[in-house]
Design a protein that fits this description.
The chain has a single domain, classed as Spore Coat Polysaccharide Biosynthesis Protein SpsA, Chain A. It has ten helices and nine strands. Strands 1, 2, 3, 4, 5, 6, 7, 8 and 9 form a nine-stranded mixed β-sheet that branches.
């Protein structure tokens, strides 16, 4: 019975998934299972995974017969997990340090009141070129003070306790939180436990294609505002979160009309770093 279950959802991720799996295999903490949830891929994802399964029986493969989406895939992983702790990684991301898992497991073991711990992030483009890097607020007090304004965790960097997550029903499958299902779960978990981020860069996060200027981003900001309203009784600074949220919507509307990609990247970098 492994202590840790790692959930890796994928859809047509054959091009990228090896770097994610390799970064798991490099970890000095070994008491884990890797649950790969294939959401109906039509590429060579299965062939890539079979090669790794032949090397390590801790890697387990589950396939959705049709594409069900990220929310249902994450919950299938939670349902299959046997570990007390859950870690997340996406098929195009990579853990940077070999002691990423060991530090998080040690933290949760030594801090039973904490329910989730994350890391800082290095953001890269699809060619692997670094765009920016940023650390996140580290203490529970700092995180709570900002959490209504923005998600203070990178999904592929977190580790959290499985039991309380299941008590909340796992990731919401409601369309109202599609693409922010992780943020919704963190806000729920914070009502019963504490948060932390370790002051290190733990994950290389790949920013694909036109993600910066995606129309999904506007919709995401709107959904964030609705979540802030729902959870305002549990976290401070709802008023400032509301102001920041609407300001972000307005500024992002202008941002999408900036014609130069280089200028957009510079603005985006400043935004993430601050």
């Amino acid at each position: 019975m492994p202590k840790l279950s790692i959930i890796l959802p994928t859809y047509n991720g054959a091009k990228y998934i090896s770097q994610a799996v390799e970064s798991v295999l490099r970890q000095i903490f070994h008491d884990w299972e890797l649950l790969i949830i294939d959401d109906g891929s039509t590429d060579q994802t299965l062939a890539v995974i079979k090669n790794y399964q032949a090397q390590d029986n801790r890697i387990k493969y589950f396939r959705n017969e049709k594409n069900l989406g990220i929310q249902k895939s994450l919950n299938r992983g939670l349902g299959q997990a046997v570990g007390d702790f859950i870690a997340r990684i996406d098929d195009d991301d990579e853990w940077l340090s070999e002691d990423k898992l060991s530090k998080q497991v040690e933290f949760l073991d030594n801090n039973p009141s904490h329910i989730l711990v994350g890391y800082g992030t290095v953001m890269v483009d699809e060619s692997g070129r670094e765009l920016l890097r940023y650390l996140l607020p580290t203490t529970d007090e700092q995180i709570r003070g900002r959490l209504l304004s923005k998600n203070c965790f990178t999904h592929s960097a977190v580790m959290f306790r499985k039991k309380p997550a299941l008590n909340f029903g796992g990731y919401s499958e409601d369309k109202k939180v599609l693409h922010i299902e992780d943020y919704d779960l963190w806000l729920k978990l914070g009502t019963v436990g504490k948060f932390a981020n370790l002051p290190f860069y733990g994950v290389k996060f790949t920013l694909r294609g036109k993600a910066i200027s995606s129309s999904n981003k506007i919709e995401q900001f709107k959904k964030n505002l609705k979540l802030a309203k729902i959870y305002k009784v549990f976290y401070p600074h709802y008023g400032s979160a509301l102001v920041r949220g609407y300001l972000r919507l307005v500024l992002y509307g202008f941002f999408n009309f900036i014609p130069l990609a280089v200028l957009k990247n510079k603005i985006f970098k400043k935004y993430k770093e601050n």
